[in-house]
TrEMBL record:
Name the record gives this protein: Twin-arginine translocation pathway signal
Superkingdom of origin: Bacteria
Alphabetized Gene3D superfamilies for the sequence: Domain of unknown function DUF4159
InterPro entries: DUF4159 (IPR025297)
Species name: Aquimarina atlantica
C-alpha cells in the first residue's frame, strides 16, 4: 500500500457528486508546493457505499442537488467519521434554495443527532495549523452566486468527535473557487488554495 497522501472524492447515489473537477489536482499541487507530504497527485473517486473509504485519510463531498444517503452510505459515513476519519463537505451553491446545504445538514442531524453540526470559532486551530487566517474562513467570489440571501457566511460548521473535527462543512463554495488549472495560479496575487492546505494538514495531524 502506498504511504502517499491521496485525495478521495465521495461518490453518492443521490444528487450530483462530480463537480469542481479541476479542484483536487490544484489542491494536491499546493500540498506538493508548500508541504513535505508525499502526495499522490491523482484524485481517487470512491463510492461512499464502498468499504474502500476506510482506507482514505481525507474525503471530499460536494454537489448542488439533494443529498439523500442510502442505508449503506449512511452507515459508512457514520462509521468513517466516528473512527477518526475526516470529511470536508462543501456546498457548490449555485441553486437558489441551497438544496445541497439544507439536505446535507438534515443528513448530518439524522446521523449524529440534532445540533451536532455547529459553527466553529474563527480562532479554531484549523485557521492556524499551517497558514494563518486571522479572520477565520477566507471569503470566496462564488459565495453570493446561488443563495439569494446576499450573506457572506463568515464561519464554517463542523461536527466534532472527541474534540476533533470529523466533518467540516462550508457554505462558501471553495470547490468552485479552487476549480482552475494549477498552472494558472501564477496569475493570482494570493494563492487562494492555501486554506485547502490548512484543511488537509488539520485532517492529518489533529
Amino acid at each position: 500500500m502506498s504511504n502517499k497522501f491521496f485525495f478521495t472524492r465521495l461518490q453518492y447515489e443521490s444528487g450530483d457528486w462530480d463537480v469542481d473537477q479541476r479542484m483536487p489536482s490544484n489542491l494536491l499541487n499546493s500540498l506538493v508546493e508548500y508541504t513535505t507530504l508525499k502526495v499522490d497527485t491523482q484524485e481517487r473517486i470512491i463510492a461512499l457505499s464502498s468499504d474502500e473509504i476506510f482506507k482514505s485519510p481525507f474525503c471530499y463531498i460536494s454537489g448542488h442537488k439533494l443529498v439523500q444517503f442510502t442505508k449503506k452510505e449512511r452507515e459508512n459515513f457514520e462509521k468513517y467519521v466516528r473512527n477518526g476519519g475526516f470529511v470536508f463537505a462543501d456546498d457548490c451553491n449555485h441553486d437558489i434554495d441551497g438544496l445541497f446545504s439544507k439536505s446535507f445538514e438534515r443528513q448530518m442531524e439524522d446521523i449524529f443527532g440534532p445540533r451536532q453540526l455547529k459553527k466553529i470559532p474563527n480562532t479554531h486551530e484549523i485557521y492556524k495549523v499551517f497558514f494563518e487566517f486571522e479572520d477565520g474562513p477566507p471569503t470566496t467570489s462564488q459565495e453570493l452566486n446561488g443563495w439569494g440571501d446576499d450573506i457572506v457566511h463568515d464561519y464554517l460548521k463542523a461536527i466534532e468527535i472527541n474534540g476533533r473535527i470529523g466533518v467540516l462543512f462550508s457554505n462558501k463554495d471553495y470547490g468552485c473557487e479552487w476549480d482552475y488549472d494549477f498552472r494558472n495560479k501564477r496569475w493570482y496575487k494570493i494563492d487562494n488554495t492555501r486554506f485547502g492546505v490548512n484543511i488537509v494538514m488539520y485532517a492529518l495531524t489533529s
